[in-house]
């Protein structure tokens, strides 16, 4: 799935490897998470004759594009039956339950009252809001979305990357309550997007439940200790409930977290692929118990 973007370094490198590889195989549980256009780079590596065109020609054939003046915006797709036929010509698809014997999963959405409605609404409508004598602005839609995510989690970064604390108790209290509801001796993973969320969650678990969590993000990696059930460097002993608080981009792939069967999302990533990959950390071969999200 890392080779989806045709212009990315990984994708271009795979393209260079193609001619020297006698046999080429593509394996992915998330082959097209953003749009059908994700298929191009994968099949360019496997067999460029499948679509027999460059990316611009591929995009013109399968995407409906609106002329925005300086660029074209994809607003829909077409000829998808033709694309599916070409994809199916050299591929085989299996659902996970056809090849893996995995336990059931259960999802729960916990609604939490928002404590920063004014800041959220101002950012949503006006692209700016005043917080503690700081004017927080967003210059693009993407930047606004990030600010809205931060405000919903009870903080926001200013222009100097300094954290400004807002009302975060509603969301933190809901998380603490769910951790309390877990049976004793259970393990759990908490995924979040921002470093500030990890630090705030860790502090709340320590003060409210006397649980020192394992951490996995840019500043700390307690993954091995969590997997082995050993104390991390800042623990006196292993807590009764072992909690790993992980930044989603650090823990979304390539690791086994089947020692836990509870997974909480304090915030969601912007990329669907990151979310889908992260869910598979606890629900994968080796897991024998029902998983709760």
Write the layout of secondary structure elements.
Layout: H1 9-17, H2 39-46, H3 55-62, E1 63-67, E2 72-77, H4 80-88, H5 96-99, E3 105-106, H6 117-126, E4 128-131, E5 134-137, H7 141-152, E6 155-157, E7 163-165, H8 169-181, E8 187-192, H9 195-209, E9 214-217, E10 220-221, H10 223-228, E11 242-247, H11 248-251, E12 262-265, H12 272-279, E13 291-292
Parallel strand pairs: 3-13, 8-11, 8-12, 9-11
Antiparallel strand pairs: 1-2, 4-5, 6-7, 9-10
Helix pairs in contact: 1-2, 6-7
Structure description:
The chain is of the alpha/beta class. 36% of the residues lie in helices and 17% in strands. The chain is built from twelve helices and 13 strands. The chain has helices at residues 9-17, 39-46, 55-62, 80-88, 96-99, 117-126, 141-152, 169-181, 195-209, 223-228, 248-251, 272-279, and strands at 63-67, 72-77, 105-106, 128-131, 134-137, 155-157, 163-165, 187-192, 214-217, 220-221, 242-247, 262-265, 291-292. The strands form five sheets. Strands 10-9-11-8-12 form a five-stranded mixed β-sheet. Strands 1-2 form a two-stranded antiparallel sheet. The protein has a two-stranded parallel ribbon with strand order 3-13. Strand 9 and strand 10 (220-221) form a beta hairpin. The chain starts with 8 loop residues before the first helix and ends with a strand.
């Amino acid at each position: 799935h890392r080779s989806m973007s045709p212009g990315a370094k990984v994708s271009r490198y795979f393209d260079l490897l193609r001619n020297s590889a006698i046999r080429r195989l593509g394996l992915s549980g998330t082959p097209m998470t953003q749009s059908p256009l994700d298929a191009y780079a994968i099949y360019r590596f496997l067999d460029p004759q499948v679509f027999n065109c460059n990316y611009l020609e591929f995009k013109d054939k399968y995407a409906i594009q609106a002329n925005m003046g300086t660029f074209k915006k994809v607003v829909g797709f077409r000829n998808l039956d033709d694309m599916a036929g070409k994809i199916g010509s050299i591929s085989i698809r299996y659902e996970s339950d056809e090849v893996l014997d995995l336990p059931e999963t259960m999802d729960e959405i916990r609604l939490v009252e928002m404590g920063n409605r004014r800041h959220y609404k101002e950012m949503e409508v006006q692209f700016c809001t005043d917080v503690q004598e700081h004017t927080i602005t967003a210059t693009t839609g993407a930047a606004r979305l990030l600010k809205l995510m931060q405000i919903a989690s009870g903080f926001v970064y200013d222009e100097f990357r300094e954290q400004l604390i807002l009302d975060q108790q509603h969301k933190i209290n809901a998380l603490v309550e769910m951790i309390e509801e877990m049976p004793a001796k259970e393990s759990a993973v908490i995924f979040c997007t921002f470093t500030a969320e990890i630090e705030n969650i860790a502090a709340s678990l320590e003060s409210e439940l006397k649980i020192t969590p394992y951490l996995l993000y840019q500043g700390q990696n307690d993954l091995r200790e969590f997997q082995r059930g050993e104390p991390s460097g800042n623990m006196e002993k292993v807590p009764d409930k072992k909690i790993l608080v992980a930044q989603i981009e650090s823990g979304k792939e390539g690791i086994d977290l089947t020692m836990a069967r509870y997974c909480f999302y304090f915030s969601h990533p912007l990329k669907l692929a990151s979310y889908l990959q992260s869910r598979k950390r606890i629900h994968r071969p080796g897991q024998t118990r029902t998983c709760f999200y």
